[in-house]
Structure formats: structure tokens, C-alpha cells
Amino acid sequence: MNLYLVMVMRRPQFDPAVVPAHQRFLDELRAEDRVERSGPFGDKSGGAYLLRAAGLEEARTIAHRDPTHVSGGWDVTVYEWQAG
């Protein structure tokens, strides 16, 4: 499995009520051993998580199931991360 950095950035119209669903989504991914680290940014502009997936397309498919993406209130971007 490869690592992918998923950036989740709030848009002006974001709905804070989506945050608990997003946290449950991350908990489910942790239970599947898919998320290595996650957390919000200090300035409250969004957050990020490290996702394990077989390839970029799978990583995008998983990240686009995130309630933040589904709600349309966040920009969700996936990067292949070649960390050492």
C-alpha cells in the first residue's frame, strides 16, 4: 500500500454539522488500518490525513466518500506522498 496525503480545506459555506460524520468516517478508516495520522490545522482552515491505498485512483475514491467532500463544503485534494 502507498501513502496519500488528503487535504480537506473548508469553503466559506462549510457546515460544521458535518464534522462528526467526518470524524466517524476517519474512525472507520482507522479500523480498516487505512489512516495512519489525521488532524485539524491550528488556524481551523481544514485538516489532513494520511491514507493507505493501493493506488491514486483508489485513494481518490475513498477520499471522495468523506462526508466533507459529499457535503460540498470542503475542497478535498489527494496527493501521492513519497515520504522517506
Describe this structure in words.
The chain has 84 residues and is an alpha+beta fold. The chain has a single domain (2-80), classed as Alpha-Beta Plaits. It has helices at 19-31, 56-63, 67-71, and strands at 2-10, 35-40, 46-53, 74-80. It has a four-stranded antiparallel sheet. The radius of gyration is 12 Å and the shape is globular. The model has no long low-confidence stretch (mean pLDDT 95).
Short account of what is shown:
It contains three helices and four strands; from the N terminus they run βαββααβ.
The portion of residues assigned to helices is 25-40%
CATH architectural label: 2-Layer Sandwich
CATH H-level superfamily: Dimeric alpha+beta barrel
Number of helices: 3
- Report the portion of residues in β strands: 35-45%
Overall mean pLDDT score?
A: 95
- Counted beta strands: 4
The general outline is globular
Low-confidence stretches: none
How far apart, in Å, are the first and last alpha carbons? 15 Å
Strand order of the largest sheet: 2-3-1-4
- How would you classify the quaternary structure? single chain
